[in-house]
């Protein structure tokens, strides 16, 4: 868990409705690549901890007999159920709980996965619990966007979103220290996941990078949704100034792209995984 910060229920309050539109997708075919690496062909159970609106849960569900998404934000789970119904995914279920509430009577799993969520948890405690919830020879998976910039960035057909300007605008409204729920992240989120996971007993570390490289168009509405999908700029943080902030944000976007069209190169997807030793 980030130093000096305590989790509370408002961390992503109001963000669920913006998540699907605002967040960039993971690399194409990442789910098939990961399933192939783990030898998944429709068997076993998947647990996605901090599943949000079910983005990764639903992509991986076809490779498992059952997929379970866990998240403490009830609005995220409403979105997950809606998306599952729309996609016709019938082997996924959803549980409202924090990672620290596990095992929560959920049973054993072939794979326990954290997609950009592990850093919000009491990591040593949660990794130890995950070890007990994974069947022998099963896997612990950590997944995120690849932070390294592309080696050969592609030319963009439209302006890139003004991320530095957006960050400055957010600071103008919310202060210089990054907000997170009712608290702040004075020291950012922590790293060192590999040592923590291996300290819990997992072994055989492997790193899988799934490249993307695709360039996607983004509308002004998409960029606004991205801002509101983030924990450090979630809608509730602005209080009565939410409409004012959105007006200023849209004005900034119009300055950069008067026609409201932007472009981004999708990041690759970085996946780390470890195996629980066989009995």
UniProtKB/TrEMBL annotation:
GO terms for molecular function: methyltransferase activity. Keywords: Methyltransferase, Transferase. Residues 47-138 form the Methyltransferase domain. InterPro entries: Diverse_substrate_MTase, Methyltransf_25, SAM-dependent_MTases_sf. Coiled coil: none annotated. It comes from the Bacteria. GO terms for biological process: methylation. Pfam families: Methyltransf_25. SUPFAM superfamilies: S-adenosyl-L-methionine-dependent methyltransferases (SSF53335). PANTHER family: METHYLTRANSF_11 DOMAIN-CONTAINING PROTEIN (PTHR44942), METHYLTRANSFERASE TYPE 11 DOMAIN-CONTAINING PROTEIN (PTHR44942:SF4). This is Methyltransferase domain-containing protein.
